[in-house]
Amino acid sequence: MRIGIIIGRIGDIDGVSLETIKWVQILKKMGHEIFVLTGVSSNYMVEGIECTFLPQLSFASPDCEWEQKRAFQFPDENPQELLDHLEKASDLIAVQIFKWVMKNNIDIILPENSSALPCHLSMGIGIKKFVEHTGIYTVCHDHDFPWERGERYQTPHKEVEKIVKETFPLQISHVKHYVINTYTQDYLQRHFNIDSVVVPNVMDFSENYGIIDDYNKDFRKDFGFEEDDILLLQVTRIVKRKGIEVAIELIEKIEDKKVKLLVTGTYADDDRFGYYQRLVSLVKKKKLQDRVIFGHKLLHSHRMEQNGRKIYSLSDVYAHATACTYFSSYEGFGNAFVECVLAKKPIFVNNYRPVYWPEIGSKGFKTVMIEDGNLTDDAVQEIDKIIHDPEICKEQAEFNYNLGKKHFSLKELEKKLALYLS
């Protein structure tokens, strides 16, 4: 079949982009032809994939940013201008989707979180209009929803609230849904009478990942690390729910000055950069500037050269890490957790509710787990012991790798995709 993926951005290091690439690989393996409609590709193309660019779909487009401000962040007293805009902008997007589908003779559309999280209102509404008017077979890959984001998508306008409730998720009888955890599966059934299939985040356990080679051998020097530094890795975007301040606190509590933290993610999704600025201030206050590094300028989803400098992939970062921190207060699943398992690195995690323990922790992974972001003395001592003992690191990493291969491999993904996309 000819499957059309609709996504705001692809080829970045956020969880939706990373998982979409894996889906593309498996769907191609299953014999499908894949087409992508996206706002931006971050200079990354999937080999053999037909990409069409529609700038209006980008989260950084003027329309999207204006909509977010007027709907949620800085709402006007009267929402009519916003409502009129959403009607017209979504109509234009629906028409462009129709033209793209007709041009490529697409059989199925696959919105990647575009019909789950209202981070791009006119895109979500446009997809809904297109599906309603054409009846095209649609399978939504839903990563997270507005009710999971606290106050982020709250609005004083009843009209906007109604749009969000009726559009995210997409509630049309012939539309199928894949979700990434059982909590969401239960929620959709109870509140929307929507059946769904759980597909966890996965990794390719057949590939060499996190290996030192000729390309990344200069990694430590380029980031200002010494060869004997013990490097902890925080592979997340810089948004408040990631709990990066807990990782910084951990660095402060570990006396060994050779233990350092590298934060890989950008602050592109941080509203008004407030959280990022607080982290920078926290690092300065604790005088940890030489032990906490924000490295996004030299990192991307894939290797490349930029202005004569090497840009490293996530695999390159894992290759030089001793262990990983993952102190999120909430995650839809935990892509970075599975990456860490694949890279054979110990991981220290917050029991982010309601997902971590039911979906991951209960399977038996060996971690140092804290509760509610509380970094206890016992937890610090255990972490300190692990990162200074290569044998413990290796034993935990190998155990977790074998467990991850069993539960979160591409083979498991292929089984699940065959249910709706065979």
What does this structure look like?
This protein is α/β, with parallel strands linked by helices and 422 residues long. 41% of the residues lie in helices and 16% in strands. The chain contains 15 helices and 15 strands. The protein has helices spanning 15-29, 62-73, 80-104, 121-134, 158-167, 182-192, 219-223, 244-253, 274-285, 314-320, 335-342, 356-359, 377-387, 390-407, 410-421, and strands at residues 2-9, 33-40, 50-53, 108-111, 137-142, 176-179, 197-198, 230-234, 259-263, 292-294, 304-306, 309-311, 323-326, 347-350, 368-370. The chain has a 7-stranded parallel sheet, sandwiched between helices. Strands 10-9-8-13-14-15 form a 6-stranded parallel sheet, sandwiched between helices. Helix 9 (274-285) links the parallel strand 9 and strand 10 (292-294). The longest helix is centred in the N-terminal third of the chain and has 25 residues, at 80-104. The radius of gyration is 22 Å and the shape is globular.
Q: Strand percentage, roughly?
A: 15-25%
Q: Helical element count?
A: 15
Distance between the termini: 8 Å
Average of per-residue pLDDT values: 94
Beta strands, count: 15
Proportion of helical residues: 40-55%
Q: Name the structural class.
A: alpha/beta
In CATH's first tier, which class of the largest domain applies?
Answer: Alpha Beta
Low-confidence stretches: none
Largest sheet: 7 strands, parallel
Number of separate structural domains: 2
Report the CATH architecture of the largest domain. Answer: 3-Layer(aba) Sandwich
